[in-house]
Amino acid sequence: MTRTILLAFLALGMAKPALAELALTIPLDRADASVISASHSCAGGEPFTVRYVNAGANALALLPVDGEERIFVNTVSGSGARYVSGEFVWWSKGADATLENTLEEGSLKECPAQDHPSGE
C-alpha cells in the first residue's frame, strides 16, 4: 500500500499545473443588489474608480492598487465601510476614504471622493 501512495505522489509531482481561468459570478437580480461607482484620488494623485458591489451577504469593493485591479471584501467596522484585500485596507465613510498597506508603517493615504457615487 505504501508503494501505491508513493507512486501516486510521484505521478502528481510530475504532472504540469493546468492553466485555468476562474470567473466569479454574483447574482444582481435581487431587490437589494447594487453596483455603485465613485471616483477617488489619494493624496492628490490621479483619480481612479472604485466599484462597490452589494448583493445580500456579499459586499465588495473593486479598485486599482499599484496598477492592479484588486477585490476587497467587506469586514466588520465600527463606523463606515471597511474592506480588505491581502495587506491593504480600504475604509470609506461618506465622501471620505483611506487606503492603507498594513505591512508598511506610515502608508495611510487620504483618498477623498472626487464626485458623488453613481449606481450602475
Note the run of SSEs as H and E: HEEEEEEEEE
The parts where pLDDT drops under 50 for at least 5 residues are 1-12
Helicity range: 10-25%
Overall spatial form: globular
CATH class: Mainly Beta
Number of strands: 9
SS class: mainly beta
Cα gyration radius (Å): 20 Å
Instruction: Give the averaged pLDDT, no decimals.
Output: 84
Q: What fraction of the residues are assigned to beta strands by DSSP?
A: 35-45%
Compute the separation of the termini in Å: 58 Å
Query: What is the H level of CATH, i.e. the homologous superfamily?
Result: C-type lysozyme inhibitor
Q: Which CATH architecture? A: Beta Barrel
CATH topology value: Lipocalin
Largest sheet: 9 strands, antiparallel
Number of domains: 1
Counting DSSP H or I runs of 4 or more residues, the number of helices is 1
Query: How is the largest sheet built, in terms of strand order?
Result: 8-7-6-5-4-3-2-1-9
